[in-house]
Amino acid sequence: MMRILLFAGLWLVLTEADPGAMPVGALAALAAAWTSKHLLPPQPGRLRLMALLRFTWHFLKLSVYSGIDVAYRALHPRLPLDPALVGVRVTLPPGMARTTLASELSLLPGTLAVSQDGDEVVLHCLDQTQPIEQQVSTEGTLITSILGDGPDAGGTRHV
Amino acid sequence: MTAALDAITVVFVLAGCFFFLAGNVGLLRFPDTLTRLHALTKADNLGLGLVVIGLMPRMDHPLSALKLLLVWALGMLAAATVGQLIARSVLRRGLPIWKGPQ
C-alpha cells in the first residue's frame, strides 16, 4: 500500500536512515498507515502530480507575499488593519478537498479559516478591502485540479 | 564555492530572523487574538522556511537536508491546523473581536 511506503520514507528521513532504527520504523510505518486508513479513508479520484507541483510553486510564491504582507502591517507605525469575518460559499466537496482549502487559506495573505458552516467557510480577513472571494475561488480551482473534479464558485457574505 | 554557500546561508537565515521578529512584533502589537494568529501563522512560517533554506547547504547528508524540509512542512501543517482551532474557539467563547478603531 502506498501509505506504508510513504510513512516508511518519512521514517528514513527522520532517522537519517539509521539501520538500528529500522525495525521500529517498520512497525511505526505499519501502525501509521493503519491509523491513517481509519482516520482518513481512501477517497475516489487520484492525485495529479503535475498539478501538485504547479500548486506547490504557486503556494510558495504566495507564502512569501503573505509573510511580507503581515510583516509590513505589524511593523508599520499606524498598524494598517481593517479586519472582518467573511463567509465565503465554496462548492468543493466536504472532507479532504474542503479541509485542504481551509488550511491553505490560513497560510495565504490576509485570510484565516475560522469555521466551516454548511457550504460556507468563515474566514477572518486582515483587510476586508482585498478581493477575498476571488482568491478563494482561485485556490478552490487549483485544489480541484489536484484532487479531482467539481467546479468551484463562490459568493461572499459578511458575518 | 564555500564562500558562495556561506553567503546564501547568511542571507537566508538573516531574512528568516527578520520575519520571525516581524511575526512577534505583530503578536505584541495586533489588537486581538484573530489578528495575532495571522502574524504567527504567516510571518513565522516564512521565517522558518527561509532559515531552513539557509541551513540546507550546511548539512553533511542529503537526508539531513530533507529532514529540515520535513520540519518546515510539519510546521506549516501545524500552524494551519492549530490556527483554525484557536480561531474557532475564539468564536465559540464569544471573545472580543476587534473591528477597527472606533
Give me the strand/helix succession of chain A: HHHEHEEHE
CATH class of the largest domain in chain A: Alpha Beta
Number of strands of chain B: 0
Counted by DSSP, the helix tally of chain A is 5
Structural class per helix/strand content of chain A? alpha+beta
* Average pLDDT metric of chain A: 85
Shape of chain B: elongated
Return Rg of chain A in Å: 19 Å
Biggest sheet character of chain B: none
Assign the CATH topology of the largest domain in chain A.
Alpha-Beta Plaits
Percent in strands of chain A:
5-15%
Strand content of chain B: under 5%
Largest interface: A-B, 37 and 42 residues
Q: Sketch the major β-sheet of chain A.
A: 4 strands, antiparallel
Short description:
The complex is a heterodimer of chains A (159) and B (102). Chain A is of the alpha+beta class.
What does this structure look like?
The complex is a heterodimer of chains A (159) and B (102). Chain A has 159 residues and is an alpha+beta fold. Chain A folds into two domains: 2-39, no CATH class; 54-158, Alpha-Beta Plaits (2-Layer Sandwich). Chain A contains five helices and four strands, in the order H-H-H-E-H-E-E-H-E. In chain A, helix 1 (2-15) packs across helix 2 (22-39). Chain B has 102 residues and is mainly alpha-helical. Chain B has one domain. In chain B, 80% of the residues lie in helices and 0% in strands. Classes of the chains: A alpha+beta (159), B mainly alpha (102). Chain A binds chain B through residues 10, 12-14, 16-17, 63-64, 66-71, 73-75, 79, 81-85, 102-104, 106-107, 109-110, 112-115, 122, 124, 126, and chain B through 18-19, 22-23, 25-26, 29-31, 34-35, 37-39, 41-43, 45-47, 49, 61, 63-64, 66-67, 70, 76-77, 79-81, 83-84, 87-88, 90-91, 97-100.
